[in-house]
Amino acid sequence: MTTRLTALLESLATPDTASAAPALCLATGHLGPALLHLMHDPDRAHPWIQAATSGGLTTDRATLFYGLPALAFVLSYAPEDRYTRDRALLTRHLTDLAHHRTRTAHQRIDQHRTPTYSEYDLISGLTGIGVALMRTAPHSTALEQVLTYLVRLTEPLPTDQGHKPGWWVHHDPRMINDPAFPHGHMNLGMAHGISGVLAFLSLNHRAGRHVPGQQGAIRRLCETLDLWQRSDTHGSWWPGWVTTPHPEQQPQPLNRPGPPSWCYGTPGIARARQLAGRALQDYTLQHTAEHALLACVQRANHQNSSNDDGLCHGSSGLLQTLLRATHDHATTTQANELAQATDEIQAALMKSPRSGEATDIGLLEGRTGTALVLSTRTGSHTPAWDTLLLLADEPHHAHEPAPIRARTSRA
After folding, report:
1. What count of other Cβ atoms lies within 10 Å of the Cβ of residue 383?
2. Which of 51, 136, 313, 372 would suit a FRET pair with 250, their CA atoms being 20 to 30 Å apart?
3. Which residues of 35-60 are buried (b: 16+ CB within 10 A; e: fewer)?
4. For position 332, what pLDDT does the model report?
């Protein structure tokens, strides 16, 4: 165990009850350190779980990163003999929630209205609810319904302005009524965009969880990313979002890639494409995705990118993406290059922390996320906490024995 990881674990040994972060928030609150300790020492996790639930439970803002779904996800990593009744209750709530939200989403599609992030994405939408179900009820009809809805989301949506991609949102990226986005936008990233949907469909497909049209949906999403792929002297990259469904109509030229981040940048998008290549056994797709990851690292080194250490936007997220990509490589040459890049970033992350780390316990942007990355092992029996980020899955993890049986009708 590295010196920095040891220090991070000790700094998160006991809950800080004075923290201003919402207790039931997995992104910034007490549930993040609880998940970290469940990876190392479940006894240390219990005080954090107690702190997270001390203010009571709420059904408000039910997302993968907040509330009961977040708690269900975290407790799924607890030893089987702990929190048994709580896990069962949370799973029932989660499955009911998934059925309700998929029905609502289908009604919206039937009315030919465009969605918001909160309907479909990883952070606050049904993709995130699906991730929690992958951990708690991986063979349930609830997960089946999420998959069915996401397949439908990839189909063109007829609107009064003509057909749009089904995931086209009618607001700006930050939801602040930005006048630069009068007709909304299409997000390509992992956290709020189609790469999250692509990774989710691909991970489930590879794990044997199939619904009608799933392969076609994976192909459609890859084709959309093909349209928006750009390149420079280092290799391929993608923008985080675009303001038109067609590249030739894009009003602002896309001539510079963004930061090498998991949430919006090329690392998350390329990992989603690598997972799609593995799911479809399309080794060309997988190879080009891995090449894009290497290009991203080379570009970051050349530009001396100064990201923070965070999981969402910074070097921890880049490192975790590379760790998983290296483990799933398509060719030996690419694997060696990915491994070298991974080792270099990991060595840098193990060095002295940046200023401000001691006050932020967060998973997405603070100490917890960095500690989880530094403690990641890629063995076949290692718990994949980064299912949370759609970077990995555990196909053999299941609390239920029955397989998904594909249906053609919707709930």
Report:
1. 17
2. 313
3. bbbbbeebebbbbbbebbbeeeeeee
4. 75
Query: C-alpha 11: how far from its chain's center?
Result: 26
Interval 347-385: pLDDT, tens: 888 886 655 455 689 999 999 999 999 988 765 556 789
Confidence of residue 234 (pLDDT cuts 50, 70, 90): very high
Tokens 């609830």 — which residue? 142
**Euclidean distance between CA atoms 8 and 312, whole angstroms:** 18
**Is the distance from CB of 229 to CB of 188 less than 8 angstroms?**
no
Q: In whole angstroms, how far apart are CA 112 and each of 115, 161, 163? A: 10, 11, 10
Q: Which pLDDT score is estimated for 55?
A: 82
Most distant pair of Cα atoms in the chain: their distance: 59
Any alpha helices (H) in 42-193, and if so which ranges? 42-53, 68-75, 84-110, 117-120, 126-136, 141-153
Strand partners, 163: 158
Q: What contacts 155, CB < 8 A, 6 or more positions away?
A: 166, 220
Cα angle, residue 287 at apex, residues 198 and 331 outer, rounded to 5°: 130
pTM: 0.93
Q: What is the pLDDT of residue 249?
A: 85
Q: What is the 3-state secondary structure (H, E, C) of 398-409?
A: CCCCCCCCCCCC
pLDDT, one tens digit per residue, over 321-330 is 999 999 888 7
Q: In 3-state terms, what secondary structure has residue 107?
A: helix
Distance CA 395, CA 388 (A): 14
Helix, strand, coil share (%) of the chain residues, nearest 5: 50, 5, 45
pLDDT digits (tens, 9 = 90+) for 285-301: 999 999 999 999 999 88
Q: Annotated binding site, which residues?
A: 263, 312-313
d(CA 237, CA 300): 12
What pLDDT, on the 0 to 100 scale, is given for residue 405? 45
3-state secondary structure of 274: helix
**Separation of alpha carbons 342 and 21, rounded Å:** 32
- Domains of the chain plus CATH, in order, are 2-389 (1.50.10.20)
Binding residues for Zn(2+): 263, 312-313
Q: Label residue 56 by pLDDT band (50, 70, 90).
A: confident
- For helices 283-303 and 266-280, give the axis angle rounded to 10 degrees: 160
Q: Contact, 37 vs 48, CB < 8 A?
A: yes
